[in-house]
Structure formats: structure tokens, C-alpha cells
Design a protein that fits this description.
This protein is of the alpha/beta class and 312 residues long. Helices cover 40% and strands 20% of the residues. α9 links the parallel β9 and β10. α1 packs across α2 and α6 crosses α11.
């Protein structure tokens, strides 16, 4: 039997034609190469080389062995190529889902981190409603879903992402524009867009309104944050939006105002219980958590980049 080291040395001598060349190729000493060649020939009872004018030529008996050695190296090269592709994500696909509020700004920023680490990784992103997340995970369509709410389901596990707050958004020139804070009572004086008590974020404000016995007028219902922002920008009312939808200037042309009452909420990553996670999805989760926690009220001093690029 030949060891991998013996195979490596014999091939190096065969390729370079000299002991010195083999030593340089392998970055070792020439005497060590010479000793190993002699030991291999002696232990196997095979003469690999004939020496002529200081150069080493394969013997006729060793030709078949050299063909096999080249075959071994071809396999090693193939293995190295596969390992390299795996390291760059080339043979895999990241399949993730997200609710709209997190997908608008936070998911793209996390994906940018993933792409830097795995430049060849295939990526499939699905924007899901809360009720669609269960089938998405249970049927194996994706590995994880970024959620704005924790569901009760025996087949799912939930890992914390980050906490956030709700903000009041108004168009430029509105009576509330320029304010640093606004109360729930003040918000109800204006037509509201998109407050749905069944929505996780809408439920927070609905409870605040109910607790303070405040009546409010919903003039337009729109489920997705981008649509709500567009309606506010058009001057059709004011709205309540989560900070992640509008973080980092995610929607220009509106102004953000902090709400006086506590509006803190938690977000989660949902995964199928018992299903192993790939390295790629683990890195995505770490990246998404880092991006979202960077703008958490407790970590970012309660500041959120406004849609006009300033701090409120």
C-alpha cells in the first residue's frame, strides 16, 4: 500500500523530473524527497524511476502506476472543486419566507450579508401572509419564515429575532408633521389607514384605543406596509406602521412620529420542529437578527431612520 504522502511525492518527481524540482513543488527539502522515493521503491519492490543525466524518467514497469496516480489526483481535484463550490454556496439554494413588514428592508439587508459570504448561493425568497407560513414550512417549501407574530403550532419552533415599536406616519405638510411624539388620542383625530385589529400590529393599537376608550375612523384598509405608506404619501390619511418597514429610509416621502404609549412588539423566526437547518439558513438567521437588533429601541436609543434619511 502507498500512503497519500508517497503518492504525492512520486507524482511530484514524475511531473518535475528532478528531486530538487519535486522538493520545490512540495516546499520541502530535497533529501527528504530522495529518501522517501528510495524507501517507497524498496518497500514495494518496484523501481519507479531511471536516472539519466540528473533527471528522473519513469520506468516501463511504473507507467500503469503513474496512470493510477494521475487518476487519484484527478479525483482529489474534483473533490477540491466540490468543496470550493459548497463553500461558496454553488451547489445549494437558500429558501426562506418572510412577512411583508420584515421583507421590505430587513430581509434584503440580511441577504446582502449572505451573498458576501456565499457568492454563488441560489436564493429563493417568498413573501407570505401569516396564515401561509404554516404550509410553507410544514410542506418543506422553505427552511424558515421571518414572522411578526408567534403562532401556536405543535409542528413549529420559534426563535426570537428582535423587538420593535410602532410609529405614526404622516405626509409632509400634515398638521402632525415635525412632531417628535404623538399620543393615541391625537392620532384618532385624523382619518386612519390600514388599522386592522386582527393584524398583529393593528391589535396593539386597537388595544390602546380600547383601553383609553378612543373611537377611531378607518377610511382605507390596506394590509401591506408599502401600500399603507403609499396611501399616506398621497395625503389620504395617516397610519400606524412598524419600524422595520420604514427603517433606513425604506419609504421616502413620509414622516415618522414616535407614539407616546408603549407599542413594543416581538418578532420571530419560525422553523419546522425537528428539521435540521443548513449552514446557509443559519447564517441568514444570524444576519437578519443582527440587522433587526441594530435598530431595536433599546439598542438604537429608540431612533429609527426616517423615510427622508434623518433621525426622529
Amino acid at each position: 500500500m502507498m500512503t497519500l504522502r508517497q503518492v504525492e511525492v512520486i507524482r511530484a518527481v514524475m511531473v518535475t523530473g528532478t528531486i530538487g524540482g519535486a522538493a520545490k513543488l512540495l516546499n520541502v527539502s530535497a533529501p527528504g524527497i530522495s529518501r522517501l522515493v528510495k524507501y517507497t521503491e524498496r518497500s514495494l519492490g518496484i523501481r519507479f524511476f531511471q536516472r539519466q543525466n540528473g533527471r528522473y524518467f519513469p520506468t516501463p514497469e511504473a507507467q500503469n502506476i503513474f496512470e493510477q496516480i494521475n487518476g487519484v489526483y484527478k479525483k482529489v481535484d474534483d473533490l477540491s472543486e466540490i468543496i470550493s463550490k459548497i463553500g461558496r454556496g454553488g451547489l445549494s439554494e437558500l429558501r426562506i419566507g418572510s412577512v411583508p413588514s420584515i421583507s421590505q428592508v430587513m430581509v434584503p439587508r440580511a441577504i446582502e450579508r449572505v451573498r458576501r459570504r456565499y457568492p454563488d448561493l441560489g436564493i429563493d425568497i417568498n413573501i407570505l401572509k401569516l396564515e401561509e407560513a404554516i404550509d410553507y414550512l410544514m410542506l418543506g417549501r422553505g427552511e424558515c419564515v421571518a414572522m411578526s407574530y408567534r403562532l401556536e403550532h405543535s409542528g413549529l419552533d420559534f426563535m426570537p429575532l428582535a423587538s420593535g415599536e410602532l410609529y405614526c406616519i404622516v405626509p409632509p405638510g400634515h398638521e402632525l408633521a415635525g412632531r417628535k411624539q404623538v399620543s393615541a388620542a391625537e392620532i384618532t383625530r385624523y382619518p386612519l389607514i390600514g388599522i386592522d385589529p386582527n393584524d398583529p400590529y393593528g391589535r396593539i393599537m386597537a388595544e390602546i384605543f380600547a383601553r383609553n376608550r378612543l373611537a377611531y375612523n378607518i377610511t382605507i384598509r390596506a394590509r401591506f406596509g408599502t401600500t399603507v405608506c403609499a396611501l399616506v404619501k398621497a395625503g389620504l390619511g395617516i397610519a400606524i406602521i412598524d419600524q422595520f418597514t420604514v427603517a433606513h429610509g425604506g419609504y421616502p416621502g413620509i414622516e415618522l412620529i414616535k407614539i407616546t404609549e408603549p407599542t413594543r412588539f416581538d418578532t420571530y423566526i419560525a422553523v419546522k420542529r425537528g428539521a435540521p437547518l443548513s449552514l446557509h439558513v443559519e447564517h441568514f438567521i444570524e444576519s437578519l437578527r443582527a440587522e433587526m437588533r441594530a435598530v431595536e429601541p433599546s439598542r438604537g436609543n429608540g431612533k429609527v431612520a426616517s423615510a427622508r434619511g434623518r433621525k426622529k
